[in-house]
Amino acid sequence: MDGMLGQLGRAQGVQQQVLVRNGFGYGVIGADLHVFGDGRPVYLLTEAGGRPDLALARDERGLPAQPSHLLNARHAVVDFTGRDREVDDLTAWRDGDDGRAVRWLHAPGGQGKTRLAGRVAGSAAREGWKVIAAEHSPARVVDGGEQAGHDLRVGDADGLLLLVDYADRWPLAHLTWLFSNKVLDQNVPVRVLLVARNEHVWPALRHALTQSGWPPGICTTQALGALPPVRAVRRDMFVAARDCFARHYGTPDTTAIGVPDWLERDEFGLTLAVHMAALVAVDRHARRVPEPAAPREGMTALTAYLLERESLHWHALHGTADTAAGARTAFHTDPHQMRRAVFTAALTGPLAYRDAKAALERVGVGGDTDRVLTDHTFCYPPT
Predict the structure, then answer these.
(1) Does one domain contain both 158 and 180?
(2) Looking at 262, 280, 308, which one is the last position of a domain?
(3) Is residue 284 part of a domain?
C-alpha cells in the first residue's frame, strides 16, 4: 500500500471508509500505510491531540485505589512546569529556517521527555502546525473503539511536526520506513521529534538519513539533563504536582501538605521522582498515615509505599465481591500471581496477547494464564 493512500489523500474532497467485519481496521489519508505481510500496520499515524481517559478505581473511602495511575505521563494529570530553557530550545528548532529537520531527544526514564514533547507539540498545534504522532504498532495495544480512519493531510497548516515517542524501541528498518513515508513530503516546514531513553539507534539512523539526502546539519540530538539541584525549582514542581494530585483526592486545601526538605538530593533529579514524592505526600495526608521517622525518605521508600497500595488493591479485588471497594465477583487472580504478572509486564513492556500469554507461562505465573491476563488488563488497562 506504499504511496497509494498518500496519493489519494492529495485529491480534493477525498473520502475514506474503513469497513471491518471482524478485528481491527486502520486507514490514513495523506500518508503511506506500511504493513507487514499479514496486513498489520508497522506503525500507526494519528493526529496528535487530546489524552486518554483516566478511569481511577476507588477504594471504600472513595480514594484512588491505585495512586500510581496518576503518574502516567500520557494522562498529563500534573500541569506542565519548569524546563523553560528546553522548551525554548525546541521551539527555536521548530521555527528554524530549514525546510525539514530531525531531532533525537533522549534521557533516562522519568526525566520528563514525554511531557516536554507534548508541551512542544501542543504549542505547535495552537500556532497552526499539523501535529502527527507515530506509534510502533507491534508494541501498541489498540482499543477497538478507536477511530479507524485518519486524515493526515496538512492542508493550510503552517508546518508539520511528527512526534515519535519511545523511538529507541523501534527497529532501525521500521524507522527508515517511517522516514520514507510521503507524509513528510510537504511544501511547508517539516520537523520530526524522536523521543528516546538512549542514543543507541541514533547513529545508524542518522547515517541512513544522510545517505538518503538529509543534510547532516539538520539531523541533531539533544540530551535532557536532570533537574537542577535548586530548591526553588524542585519545590515549584512539587507544589504543582501536589495540588494537581489533590484534586483527584477531593482535597482542595493542600496547605497542610508541606514541601519536604530533601528534594535537592541527587535521586530527585528526575521529574518522576519529584512527582512520586508529591503523590505519596497527598495519599498519606488523605489517609491520615503518619510521616515516617528519620532517616529522611528516599526513592526506595516512596516506591515501596506505592507498591503497597497496589498490593492492597489486588487483595481487595481478590478477597471481596464488594463493588464499592472496586472489586468484581469474577476476579480470580490472587495477589501472588498478580505480583508476578506485573513484574513480568514491567520487564517486557506491552505485548500482543499471544506473546503476553507465552511470557506468563514461561515465568510460571501459575493458574489460568488467560484469566491472569484478563485481570491484569482490568487493573492496568492499555493507554
Answers:
(1) yes
(2) 308
(3) yes
Q: What is the CA radius of gyration of the chain?
A: 23
> Could you give the dihedral angle defined by the CA atoms of residues 168, 171, 173 and 175, in that order, rounded to the nearest 10 degrees?
-30
Indicate whether this model's pTM tops 0.85: no
Among candidate residues 166, 190, 223, the one where a domain is terminated = 223
Instruction: Write the pLDDT tens digit of every residue in 230-243.
Output: 788 899 999 999 99
Instruction: Give the number of domains in the chain.
Output: 3
In a domain, 67, yes or no: no
At 168-208, the pLDDT tens digits run: 989 999 999 999 999 999 999 999 999 999 999 999 999 99
pLDDT digits (tens, 9 = 90+) for 94-135: 999 999 999 999 998 888 898 899 999 999 999 999 999 998
327 and 283 assigned to the same domain: no
Range of the domain at 299: 231-308
Nearest to 345 by CA among 331, 359, 364: 359
Degrees (nearest 5) of the Cα angle 383, 161, 36?
A: 60
Using alpha carbons, select from 9, 2, 4 the residue that is nearest to residue 153.
Answer: 9
- Whether residue 241 contacts residue 274, with contact meaning beta carbons closer than 8 Å, is answered with yes
CATH code of the domain covering residue 55: 3.40.50
Per-residue pLDDT, 142: 54
- Residue 172 CB contacts under 8 Å (≥ 6 apart), including other chains: 201, 204, 205, 208
Query: Is residue 215 a contact partner of residue 97, using CB atoms and an 8 Å limit?
Result: no
CB 161 within 8 A of CB 130: yes
Q: Is 104 helix (H, G, I), strand (E, B) or coil?
A: strand
Whole-angstrom Cα distance, residue 174 to residue 7? Answer: 21
